[in-house]
Design a protein that fits this description.
This protein has 360 residues and is α/β, with parallel strands linked by helices. The chain folds into 2 domains: 167 residues, Periplasmic binding protein-like II (D-Maltodextrin-Binding Protein, domain 2, 3-Layer(aba) Sandwich); 93 residues, Periplasmic binding protein-like II (D-Maltodextrin-Binding Protein, domain 2, 3-Layer(aba) Sandwich). Helix content is 53%, strand content 16%. The protein has 15 helices and 11 strands. The longest helix is centred in the N-terminal third of the chain and has 33 residues.
């Protein structure tokens, strides 16, 4: 008599499959070669899954972490940050960046001090002033370039030299590298800041003020200096006579440097990659950067080759290491800022006292 097969529950099915597997294995041994092959397949599959998960986590982290906000104003040496963004280098390095474009060094410093940005491109002067006047701790992440001729003092055609500036109206960005340049230029001619009329204004305003006759001279830099030259101004001083003093840097708040070192390192890698790209593809890079500055590619090339010395990744250690060039320059600039502070204090006391003459 033939019996009907029993109906299995899910639990019975699991046991049944286990029993069948065991009996099947007993009848047909698995080949060692096949076993190793399956092990290899499982291993590779596991690695691929792990890699996909890691990539997904990195992508999620990049999208969810706040962007690194960096302020910058018009200056050819800072354009490599914009070029890095244009080329997608920041994303490739795994950092989300927001470049905040402002009109002057002073604007960048104010945004930095108000914590509206995490970092700023500026000269060493703005970083030191933030530390001295606002007590704002910061750290310099990289040195972008040195101005060796690009920063200039431009004057009317009838003012032939520095000595002719005595008593004249000179436009200067307040609390910026402009004041240090003017101080050193006047000292080289045996003069002092009190010998001229300093008018503080934004760099972008200077060409219009010159065209309207409101100023006789200006401390300027590209691209605004090119506008002034086109209006009939001529150069009576440039930073070629003070090499290594005017350094452009990227600084971050100390808490940002402490909490986001990987992002800052990624920013630096992207920035220097853009420099390398410009070296390998000069015409394309110059065209992109010049368009943003409102000048021609030839003008941009002339400024870089004749007045700005770019400082690449390989040179950073020589500047940033303890006792390096940045330390030496900081001591020089600190002394200049002390002289400027004395002059400003005397000028304020003169205004309060109601004096109309230039303070001596």
């Amino acid at each position: 008599m033939t019996s009907e097969p029993a109906q299995s529950t899910p639990a019975d099915l699991t046991v049944a499959l286990g029993t069948a597997t065991e009996s099947s294995s007993a009848r047909t041994p698995i080949s060692p070669i096949r076993g190793r092959a399956w092990l290899l397949v499982l291993l590779v599959t596991g690695l691929l899954i792990a890699g996909a998960v890691t990539a997904s986590l990195q992508f999620i982290e990049l999208r969810t972490s706040p962007p690194l906000r960096v302020a910058l104003n018009p200056w050819p040496g800072y354009e490599f940050a914009s070029l890095a963004a244009e080329l997608g280098y920041f994303e490739e390095e795994g950092v989300k960046v927001r470049l905040v474009e402002l009109s002057s060094l002073s604007d960048c410093r104010r945004a930095f001090e108000r914590h509206q940005v995490d970092g700023m491109f500026s000269t060493l002067v703005e970083v030191l002033l933030s530390q001295q006047q606002s007590g704002l701790p910061s750290e310099i992440a990289l040195v972008a370039d040195a101005s060796e001729g690009a920063d200039v003092i431009l004057a009317r055609e009838d003012l032939p030299d520095l000595a002719s500036l005595k008593g004249r109206r000179i436009a200067v960005e307040d609390a910026s590298i402009n004041e240090v340049i003017l101080l050193r230029a006047l000292q080289s001619a045996g003069m002092a800041l009190a010998d001229v009329q300093v008018l503080h204004m934004a760099a972008l305003e200077m060409p219009r003020a010159f065209a309207e006759g409101r100023i006789d001279a200006a401390v300027s830099y590209p691209p605004m200096s090119l506008q002034l030259l086109s209006l009939g101004a001529h150069t009576i001083f440039c930073t070629r006579t003070m090499p290594g003093v005017i350094l452009d840097v990227l600084a971050f708040h100390r808490d940002t440097a402490t909490n986001r070192p990987d992002d800052i390192a990624a920013f630096g890698r992207a920035f220097f990659r853009a420099m390398e790209y410009a070296e390998q593809n000069p015409q394309k890079a110059l065209t992109l950067m010049a368009a943003r500055q409102g000048i021609t590619a030839d003008q941009f090339r002339e400024v870089l080759s004749g007045g700005i010395r770019l400082i690449g990744a390989a040179e950073q250690r020589g500047y940033l290491s303890p006792g390096g060039r940045l330390h030496t320059t900081t001591r020089l600039i600190t002394a200049d800022l002390a002289t400027i502070a004395v002059w400003k204090n005397r000028a304020r006391r003169s205004v309060i006292a109601g004096e109309t003459s230039i303070p001596r």
